[in-house]
Amino acid sequence: MNDRLREVLEKQGYGLVGQHSAVKLCHWLRQKLMKGRSCYKEDFYGIECHRCLQMTPWLDCNQKCTYCWRYHGGKAEDIVPDDPESILDGAIEAQARLVSGYRGIETVEEAMWHESREPNQIAISLAGEPTLYPHLGEFIGLARSRGMTTFLVTNGTRPDVLSSMDDLPSQLYISVDAPNEEVYGNLCKPMEPGLWDRIVESLAIMPSLDTRTVVRHTLVRGWNMTDVDGFARLVAMAEPDFIEAKGYVFVGYSRMRMTIDNMPSQDEVRDFARRMEDATGYVIAKEKPESRVVVLTKDGKMPGSVLP
């Protein structure tokens, strides 16, 4: 990674791994350690958020989404990609370093702190686009061989990767943040032509992938909350196990491009989810106001535990 990117991310508390990977403690991991409060992924899907490793194997991205709170200066050009084992080992070591300062705090349980240093779940969702890492399937397979579950969050622009991975994640998210190509171009700022068609292709192959699947809509007031029928058509194509309606939050670098008026309330997120019920036949199963998220399933029920 370039020196400017390294400087920015280190100041922001990232643990950098190799040439193009990084780890950062999730807000909810810190909340679980300090106050016993869990994230929506723990409440919805049964992971333990204090044992969740939030990381990316590839800091660069092929979109520059207007609502993204991450730094957009990442570049991973002209490098030989790091091998999966060095990334996984380095990420676990970085996590242990980042949580080291929480030991001894009065409200932090010693046993939970030790567990946080030994993650058993990886959220491949920190920054960049992970499917740009050429050994992603091997990385996921290595994590599984060590008894770790994986949640992969992708923007869906690499259907070739999703269809060819020998090892799929425990749960696959595709971020579908626009109901049509016009909104996609304006909101997600693709860095190369043809990415919308690739997202549609990824959604079309989603039903054939042997893993648990999620379509996530990041909702931005004034940008993408009106064309519910457009979103519903994409959901019908993907047939996901879950739909997540999640409100944009006015934080980080997004504050340079958005205003606080673009952040929907939980009532607005819930209203969108209810309209999605009518348009898709999915049923609201659960919500977490602290995370501005509502989840819908085909039968309104949640599984309660992550897949092995």
Describe this structure as you would to a colleague.
The protein has one domain (3-297): Aldolase class I (TIM Barrel). It contains eleven helices and ten strands. The chain is globular and about 50 Å long. It has helices spanning 3-11, 27-35, 40-45, 84-99, 110-116, 136-145, 159-164, 181-188, 195-205, 228-238, 266-280, and strands at residues 15-17, 21-23, 52-56, 121-124, 149-154, 171-175, 212-219, 242-247, 283-288, 293-297. Strand 5, helix 7 and strand 6 form a beta-alpha-beta unit. It starts with a helix and ends in an 11-residue tail after the last strand. Helix 4 (84-99) crosses helix 6 (136-145) and helix 10 crosses helix 11. The chain has 308 residues and is an alpha/beta fold. Helix content is 35%, strand content 17%. The protein has a ten-stranded mixed sheet with strand order 1-2-3-4-5-6-7-8-10-9, sandwiched between helices.
Pick out its properties:
308 residues; alpha/beta; TIM Barrel; ten-stranded mixed beta sheet; 17% strand
